[in-house]
Amino acid sequence: MTALLHLTHLIGGEARAGDAASAPPVHDPATGTAFATCPAGSASDVDAAVRAAQAAFPAWSSLPNETRARWLNQLADALEARIDDFAQAESRDGGKPLKLAREIEIPRAAQNLRFFAAAATQFASESHHGQAGLNYTLRAPLGVVGCISPWNLPLYLFTWKIAPALATGNCVVAKPSEITPVTAWMLGELTRDIGFPPGVLNIVHGLGPVVGKALVEHPGIKAVSFTGSTAVGRQIAAHCGPALKKTSLELGGKNATVVFADAFADPSRRERLLDTVVRAAFQNSGQICLCGSRILIERSVYADFRDAFLARVHALRAGDPFDPATRLGPLVSRAHFDKVLACIALARSEGGHVLCGGDALQPEGRCADGWFIAPTVIEGLGPECRSNTEEIFGPVVTLQAFDDDAHALALANATPYGLSASVWTQRLDRAHRIAAGLHCGIVWINTWLLRDLRTPFGGVGQSGMGREGGMEAMRFFTEPKNICIQLD
Ligand code: NAD
Description:
Blueprint: E1 5-6, E2 9-11, E3 14-16, E4 25-28, E5 33-37, H1 43-62, H2 65-81, H3 83-94, H4 98-122, E6 127-130, E7 133-141, E8 144-148, H5 154-167, E9 171-175, H6 182-193, E10 201-203, H7 208-217, E11 223-227, H8 230-243, E12 246-250, E13 255-259, H9 261-265, H10 267-282, E14 292-298, H11 302-315, H12 334-349, E15 353-356, E16 360-361, E17 372-373, E18 376-379, H13 386-389, E19 396-402, H14 405-412, E20 420-424, H15 428-437, E21 442-445, E22 464-465, H16 470-476, E23 478-485
Parallel strand pairs: 1-5, 8-9, 8-11, 9-10, 11-12, 13-14, 13-20, 14-19, 18-19, 20-21
Antiparallel strand pairs: 2-3, 4-5, 6-7, 7-23, 12-22, 15-18, 16-17
Helix pairs in contact: 1-7, 2-4, 3-4, 4-5, 10-11
The chain binds nicotinamide-adenine-dinucleotide.
């Protein structure tokens, strides 16, 4: 048996060990075995990290934007030089197919760093010249900010937050998920390797209710950027509201994929439609906030769509994430595996008819004890039931039929969430009308998860508050100050 890997905090440019006795184990979900320990951070670790960040802030925030951009690009270079190691670590930590980590998620983490490095060099002050004099707006960094990220896209979302925070001149105390802490730790080690200015990026590991809570509530933290569950987002808002702390909350989703008959009828487009709807349903075993877990199909093509969709789902290969043929890995943890199986049981008790999957899977070989669930498709459930209104966050989708545009919109909007939707139609007028009527922050037409990093990213309702991405993130991490000069 190989020795456990012991991760460390990054505070003031130094690796600091946590209390080994209470460190939570980090599991490989494909095998169910522990392979690392995550330091159990405390409120005093958070305080030390905030102080280190405060000490680093005057110098970091005074650097020319181009110099900060150079540091971010240097970190991206170092990450790309070790892309295979990072992809392996991400795959083992979260159980995602290695191919997904290597081809999409880790490259995107490097791209996040480069994108915001470039943004730093383009972020300009606005000015207005008119009867009310000459006005210009300065944008200053906030100071020390807290970035809290989840387990489903660990390094991808970690860098999505820290990159704009650092690019705009803030210093950061970041807390990755205790379930998947390895690549954030590795990135922290890279900053030490390249001599990144100490204290600018600090990483404190540990449990959410301990380290995350201490970070949110620390008086030295000027803003909190959080991605995670709606329940925790609410707790953060409950503290940050009265404290008047700036917050960005990217929370859960229950996204609709809306398939109109005209899109499915065209044989030249059907294959791409089906492949994309399957990917939207099951990528990362459905553990992406943007996954389309409610598939709405126009009634005239419902049966044909269902049969073609099911044939593709049956062909999805679940198993060892290191096998290049694998499309679905395990669920991220034993607790999450149990939760998703309980959701499937609930769907059955609500009258849902399981068309495929519905059970745990036991792959042969080294993954026999992993936390796998077969891709699951359920029909026969109405829009109000819990299976169609609550986030499951696993390889589970429901199918519902609709009759016309108004019915499609009513079903799509019948959840308290509002993150994203994808709409499949060849009719331009319908695409625009449905997109305008959907209650959510992101709409894809005839595609899914196609991302231009300049666009606003975020949701409405229970999916959160605020937007990330492009200049939205640059604005979130800065405070505008207007200066007005009378010219006559
Ligand atoms: P989670 O809310 O349990 O944890 C997210 C992070 O918050 C972790 O680092 C955790 O340690 C920390 N945390 C937990 N309790 C805390 C507290 N009391 N105070 C401060 N921090 C605390 O979420 P998760 O299970 O890691 O992630 C899955 C959820 O994230 C899903 O609901 C998913 O939809 C959502 N998500 C949303 C987006 C988006 O962009 N909208 C993206 C990815 C994931």
